[in-house]
Amino acid sequence: MAHKKRRNFRHVMEEGSGALLRSTLPREWVLHEYAPDYGIDGTVEIFEPVGDDGESFETLGEHIFFQLKSINKSNIATKVAVQRSNPLLGREVLSSRKEGDEPWAVRFDAITYDMEVDELLTVEAMGASVAVVLFLVPLDRNEVYVVSLTDYIDRVLNFDDPEWRSKGTKRMYIPLVNRVPTPPAMALLRQYGKRAKLMHLFNVATYQYTAISEWFDGREDKINTLANRFCYRLLALDVWNENSWSILQHYHDVLVGYRDLFAGDESAINRIGWKNFDNPFNETLDMYTKIRFTWQGLKSLGLSYEDLVREWGLPTYNGIRHLSLHELGPEYSELVEHLPNYKG
What is the 3-state secondary structure (H, E, C) of 213-233? Predict the structure, then answer.
């Protein structure tokens, strides 16, 4: 029987989840939706306030690709994640633990979502230099949860189920502590937005370290000139306000110390410490060695990012443990339980 055009419930769900996502993100952030979309629903463009009136906002040039999914009823699973090394190394338990020690673990609640593998393959094809996140909206909770699909593929799926690409769907676990707009979720989103800029920093620092290590001919004036030029290049990058990764602030302060030292402030020598964040270099080290050690540390930022930071917010020990660094209040203690000497 003929009838007038109808609107199905899926459209209602999509419209409601989109409105909820907009309401949970900062009001100055902009959602750019793709139509039609082929696995990526759009991007979030991050802005920050300028001036004191709170009425003007400036784009940071930072974008997060996203998929937005909604479900009628949430399914909550309790998971246990055991402390382990980077799964890419192929070892589950940290090799630094002594024989006989039981690994630490965390027990946490996560919301599940069965995702189409075709969509995950699209995300994987984009590489890791940009972040694609899943915003999941369970309508019965009227809340938004977030997880990085880009990192989930590398750090969870490839480790837990190497054959996932041959399946139709794959169950995802999104920690309940990743609820937007709580502090951990917002820290994750801001960090995802900076990913392309951080990748640029890692490339530049690696290039500079190679130049300092291989092109130095023994002349201190030459290495000082080179390091001074490199300082200004690095300090000009828009990455140093990434507050969730404290080592960045350390290296920013070190670079400012070098800049001031080369500008004639001899007291700045006390601000160019390496590794031990509270201590300056041993005075017996020559300037070239100090510079080389500093840029070796800068080069290692990319290794730390790949080894640790990309796991933050995932349903893994490191991913959940990192969230405790934020001021979460009682919600964190209710959703996450630390299990020392976990025996399984």
Answer: HHCCCCCHHHHHHHHHHHHHH
Cβ count near 123 (within 10 Å):
23
Backbone angles phi, psi at 54, to 5 degrees: 70, 15
Residues 107 and 342 sit within 8 Å (Cβ to Cβ): no
pTM of the predicted structure, to 2 decimals = 0.86
72, 139 in Cβ contact below 8 A? yes
Q: Do β-strands 132-138 and 56-71 pair in parallel, antiparallel, or remain unpaired?
A: parallel
Query: What is the pLDDT tens value at each position of the chain, 344 positions in all?
Result: 654 444 444 544 566 688 899 999 999 999 999 987 778 999 999 999 887 777 789 999 999 999 999 999 999 999 998 887 776 666 555 544 555 555 688 889 999 999 999 999 999 999 999 999 999 999 999 999 999 999 999 999 998 999 999 999 999 999 999 999 988 899 999 999 999 999 999 999 999 999 988 776 666 778 888 999 999 999 999 999 887 888 899 899 999 999 998 898 888 877 776 544 444 555 556 788 888 889 999 999 999 999 889 999 999 988 888 766 554 555 556 667 767 766 66
